[in-house]
Design a protein that fits this description.
The chain is of the alpha+beta class and 457 residues long. The protein has helices at 23-32, 63-72, 81-91, 100-110, 116-136, 144-161, 168-183, 205-231, 238-244, 256-287, 289-300, 308-311, 315-327, 359-362, 383-392, 406-423; strands at residues 47-51, 56-60, 140-143, 334-337, 342-344, 347-349, 354-357, 424-428, 436-438, 442-444, 449-454. Strand 5 (342-344) and strand 6 (347-349) form a beta hairpin.
Length: 457
């Protein structure tokens, strides 16, 4: 596929808001969905400023500014605490929310578990989860977001704790997380107002309840694993690796409370984001059946149980998955806070401003990508496409804070796609096209429904 056929609709994109709205109107839009709360001009602008009585924010689409914030001077642009306010009940002091020396210590312990050799060790569990997803899938009309959430959660539990999703505790975590996702807006009131630390954060009761239940179940899993490690009977999986790895600088390991925080973010980042990307990929392949047939043919050439090396041969599946991550990045925006006085494209920025980096807008920016709203997996094999990716492709962030599971996700995604497409065909249902919205990740407002039929052997 070298371009979008003229008779094909473009992949769905939320309608932008008018250029001018009131502050209250903007906050209401933002709390409901951050994608449709933005004006269309952000797909062309290099920078935009937003002022409120409580803070100023700057969206930076200029690749030079993005590089400054993420790669060149990350310590001067820590993660904004405003964004963490909404996720703290679930994630505590996880690596996703911390900054400075605390964050660096956490990454020194976590990163070794996701090095190349360890990924190969986790592959059999990932393959088993993919095969289980194929076995669970039924023909007919299927809500694929839910199906992919199930599959991605299974991958996490098998690779992290060596248990399948059918395990009683794993199943309860999965179902509680679905409840948490439905009650937790991406931002709560504290993201907009400078509340003192002693003031309650006004989280919804259902959000607090689900977060507490999830953390209690994770605490049970980590306590059981700690006992197995002490007894010498623990499996050699990601949880064991992380819990037995000492900080090379201090010799310290994660205590039980810290491990609960980290497992919570592994589940959020490794399950929620993968589920989003897989569901949108299946929808795009239903929208472009000729590309789906190419990926299915590639998958059939690998056999029933492809080994780790075979994933490297899934070139078409990989390009399709990357193109989905471009159009529907699971984490649509990242927020940093500048510690130093800055000059952004000739504009003075005082310390304490919110610096917004938006993969959603960068990936569709009309100065950085050719046909930015088109689904075109072939762009990844062109020099122009590769240059655009170097300048403006951030599905896993970049720099020192790049997602530690990025390589894991780029194995998981193409593998699960191949296993699913070699067995099933996914077709669009007329009148049921999804509308993207941002909650914890970029999801469909009313789910993604596709018609599923089994392929002939």
């Amino acid at each position: 596929m070298t371009g979008c056929p003229v008779h094909r609709p473009l992949p769905p994109k939320p309608a932008p808001r008018p250029d001018k709205v009131s502050l209250l109107g903007y906050l209401r839009l933002f709390r409901r969905d951050i994608l449709s709360a933005q004006p269309a001009r952000l797909y062309h602008a290099w920078m935009a400023e937003f002022r409120t009585p409580f803070f100023r924010s700057y969206m930076c689409n200029d690749p030079a500014l993005v590089t400054r914030v993420l790669n060149e001077r990350p310590d001067d642009f820590p993660k904004s605490n405003r964004i963490g306010e909404g996720l703290a009940p679930l994630l505590g002091r996880s690596v996703f929310l911390t900054n400075g020396e605390e964050w660096k210590r956490q990454r020194r312990i976590i990163d070794p578990a996701f090095e190349g050799g360890r990924l190969k060790d986790t592959y059999p569990a990932m393959l088993a989860a993919g095969q289980a997803a194929v076995a669970r899938l039924s023909e007919g009309e299927v809500e694929v977001e839910e199906a992919m959430s199930h599959a991605a959660a299974d991958v996490i539990f098998r690779t992290l704790f060596s248990i399948p999703i059918e395990n009683e505790v794993a199943a309860r975590v999965f179902h509680e997380f679905r409840a948490y996702q439905r009650t937790q807006p991406i931002l709560n009131l504290a993201a907009f107002l400078p509340l003192p630390r002693w003031m309650p954060r006004l989280h919804r009761r259902a959000t607090r309840r689900s977060a507490a239940l999830i953390r209690g179940l994770i605490a049970q899993l980590t306590a059981e694993r700690a006992a197995a490690i002490a007894a010498g009977t623990a499996p050699d999986d990601l949880a064991t690796k992380i819990m037995t790895t000492a900080d090379p600088q201090t010799g310290e390991r994660f205590d039980a409370s810290e491990m609960v925080d980290q497992v919570a973010i592994f589940f959020l980042a490794g399950h929620e984001t993968s589920a989003s990307a897989l569901a949108w990929t299946l929808y795009l392949l239903a929208l472009y059946p000729e590309v789906q047939d190419e990926v299915a043919a590639e998958a059939r050439s690998l056999g029933d149980s492809p080994d780790f090396a075979a994933v490297g041969r899934l070139k078409r599946a990989r390009d399709v998955f990357r193109e989905t991550l471009r159009l529907y990045p699971p984490v649509p925006m990242m927020v940093r806070e500048n510690r130093c006085p800055e000059d952004f494209r000739g504009r003075k920025v005082a310390p304490g401003a919110q610096v917004v980096l938006s993969p959603w807008h960068l990936h569709r920016h009309d100065r950085l990508w050719a046909n930015p709203d088109a689904f075109d997996p072939a762009r990844w094999q062109t020099e122009a496409g590769r240059q655009s990716a170097r300048d403006a492709f951030l599905p896993f962030s970049a720099g020192p804070r790049v997602c530690t599971g990025a390589a894991f996700a780029m194995i998981e995604g193409p593998l699960l796609l191949a296993l699913l497409l070699r067995s099933f065909r996914f077709d669009r249902i007329e009148g049921a096209d999804p509308v993207p919205v941002a909650h914890l990740t970029v999801r469909a407002e009313n789910g993604i429904r596709l018609r599923v039929t089994r392929r002939a052997a």
